[in-house]
């Protein structure tokens, strides 16, 4: 399954947003945290830089997290709900370098609307491609990170953060050794 680079980038931003919460500390607890997160994702938008805006993005994080493990029917309902509440209004906008693109918010829309619509449009593409099972939670026993499996054979089990794949391989290796020793 391949998505356009734009969609793929949007999906990765969602994963990164979801994974701000599963660390030992919530990495989205202050306005400064939000600034840092948006910078790290190269997400540019008009900003209010206040608590209400922070709350709105934390709320979006919960909304998106529920989609990550939702059934298709539920995911469709939630994606549509976000598109409605965030005032998505698709329109073709020409960029000097890349020609026309479909945008559903404008640069002056509030941060929540831009972020939410961007995420919901990307998730809509995943649903249209029948790819919801590619949205998963890391299989490592001590990790709850969200992951996005873009591999050809849908084989990705572990998140990219931390060292989950390695840790699980070591665990499996030790278990094998222990059973051989018995
Ligand atoms: Zn993990």
Automatic annotation (TrEMBL):
Domain Zinc finger CGNR: 134-177
InterPro entries tied to this protein: ABATE (IPR010852), ABATE_dom_sf (IPR023286), Znf_CGNR (IPR021005)
Record-given protein name: Zinc finger domain-containing protein
Organism taxonomic ancestry: Bacteria, Bacillati, Actinomycetota, Actinomycetes, Micrococcales
